[in-house]
């Protein structure tokens, strides 16, 4: 054991070389760069070399240094998976709402009756920072066991300052104490809280005048997100909040066209948002505008599956030139899963994406969706030593053999954190 790791003789090593500058689009999403009998050399937490085993070993042996060898024969080696959209930090769960939905209630009916996001917010307001930390820590362990090494996490279960701050502080604690890197997003505009129900415009003002400046002053988040949806925040309100955030240096994300078409994709393009997420009901015009503006579409097929809704048209988006990323949307209401590999299967079977495009969507495009394209998402010299090894011989089998967790070994910042399916940090 030491500072040097060699992952040797992978049956397929997928590097995604050459994709750090900008997210991949169209045909580019299928350019994985696959090396057979591939080896990765990691030193001091960073990738030092990747290529065919004989070539890497010739360089390594010349240096005569000790290394931990990980045998990847018969296995698939990819960049550590990245989940660019989660509601990781929350209290409680909502299985009774699942039951109600199975009997015909809709997600929005439940939310409008004071349940849904409001129910999770009540519980999250009552939980301590430590309780939120402990629950999220356990969920992060599950993410890691599914091959995920970086997670974006949103606030949004407070919709008042103290709880929003508590969630974002818990995210900081997790970033320090858990091997997974956490990237934080402020989402005060997740729902209009009950005490502002009759005066939603005042809540928008409160976010703009009070919460956003404090988020920036206290360095609590990098991104700013709004749930733009009929009955939640209108496009003009979302625009005000996202523009105000941008002036303060917060990059814009938007929950767009999830339940109803609502000009969310168009708004994302107009604002130059880094991502527009969900997009189940995005219009053709909205998709076209996203492609022109280079907005990344973060697709969340777990949500369509769980809400029994029509899936986003991933195929059309890729064919139209939208860079696509994939995510779990992990949250207690619309997608209570940490399995990014399941999301990958759904993307193939329900959104018309190919296995190669899906690999791109959970690695380099997901990295760009959180502004980390230069640090993670591909196996290239100088990038973080974040690697996932799956117990399948090729990337197509990963997506074909569904409902099974094929994650075998995970390396984070050059340290083995999952070995033979067990946490070892
Ligand atoms: N749609 C808004 N937010 C989440 C769901 C949050 C919840 O139901 O708790 C989503 O992305 O699906
Ligand atoms: Zn979400």
From TrEMBL:
What GO CC annotations are associated with the protein? cytoplasm
Pathway(s) of this molecule: Amino-acid degradation; L-histidine degradation into L-glutamate; N-formimidoyl-L-glutamate from L-histidine: step 3/3
Binding note for cofactor: Binds 1 zinc or iron ion per subunit.
* Gene3D superfamilies per record: Metal-dependent hydrolases, Urease, subunit C, domain 1
Please tell me whether the keyword Translocase is annotated for this protein.
Answer: no
State the reactions this protein catalyses.
4-imidazolone-5-propanoate + H2O = N-formimidoyl-L-glutamate
Instruction: State where Fe(3+) binds.
Output: 85, 87, 255, 329
Q: Name one Pfam family in it.
A: Amidohydro_1
Q: Which coenzyme or cofactor does it need?
A: Zn(2+); Fe(3+)
For this chain's UniProt record, which GO biological process terms are given? L-histidine catabolic process to glutamate and formamide; L-histidine catabolic process to glutamate and formate
User: What is the name of this protein?
Assistant: Imidazolonepropionase
Q: What is the lineage of its organism?
A: Bacteria, Bacillati, Bacillota, Bacilli, Bacillales
């Amino acid at each position: 054991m030491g500072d040097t790791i060699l992952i040797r003789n992978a049956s397929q090593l997928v590097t995604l070389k050459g994709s750090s500058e900008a997210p991949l689009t169209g045909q580019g999403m299928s350019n994985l760069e696959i090396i057979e009998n591939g080896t990765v050399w990691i030193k001091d937490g960073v990738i030092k070399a990747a290529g065919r085993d004989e070539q890497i070993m010739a360089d390594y042996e010349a240096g005569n240094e000790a290394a931990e060898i990980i045998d990847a024969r018969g296995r698939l080696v990819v960049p550590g998976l990245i989940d660019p959209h989660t509601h990781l930090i929350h209290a409680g769960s909502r299985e009774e709402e699942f039951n109600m939905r199975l009997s015909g209630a809709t997600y929005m009916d439940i939310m409008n009756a004071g349940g849904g996001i409001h129910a999770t917010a009540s519980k999250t307001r009552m939980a301590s920072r430590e309780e939120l930390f402990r629950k999220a820590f356990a969920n992060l362990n599950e993410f890691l066991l599914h091959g995920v090494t970086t997670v974006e996490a949103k606030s949004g279960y407070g919709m008042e300052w103290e709880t929003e701050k508590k969630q974002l502080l818990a995210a900081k604690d997790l970033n320090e104490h858990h091997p997974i890197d956490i990237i934080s997003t402020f989402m005060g505009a997740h729902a209009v809280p009950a005490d502002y129900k009759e005066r939603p415009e005042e809540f928008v003002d409160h976010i703009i005048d009070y919460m956003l400046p404090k988020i920036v002053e206290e360095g609590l988040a990098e991104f700013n997100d709004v749930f733009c949806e009929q009955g939640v925040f209108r496009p003009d309100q979302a625009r005000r909040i996202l523009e105000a955030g941008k002036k303060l240096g917060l990059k814009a994300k938007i929950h767009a066209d999830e339940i109803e078409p609502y000009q969310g994709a168009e708004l994302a393009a107009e604002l130059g948002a880094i991502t527009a997420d969900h997009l189940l009901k995005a219009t053709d015009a909205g998709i076209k505008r996203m492609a022109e503006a280079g907005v990344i579409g973060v697709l969340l097929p777990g949500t369509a599956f769980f809400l029994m809704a029509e899936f986003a048209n991933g195929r059309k988006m890729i064919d139209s030139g939208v860079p696509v990323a994939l995510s779990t949307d992990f949250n207690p209401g619309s997608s209570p899963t940490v399995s990014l590999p399941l999301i990958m299967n759904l993307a193939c079977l329900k959104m018309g994406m190919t296995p190669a495009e899906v690999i791109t969507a959970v690695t380099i495009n997901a990295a760009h969706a959180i502004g980390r394209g230069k640090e993670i998402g591909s196996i290239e010299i100088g990038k973080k030593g974040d690697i996932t090894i799956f117990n399948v011989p090729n990337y197509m089998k990963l997506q074909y053999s569904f409902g099974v967790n094929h994650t075998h070994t995970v390396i984070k910042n050059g340290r083995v954190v999952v070995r033979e399916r067990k946490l070892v940090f």
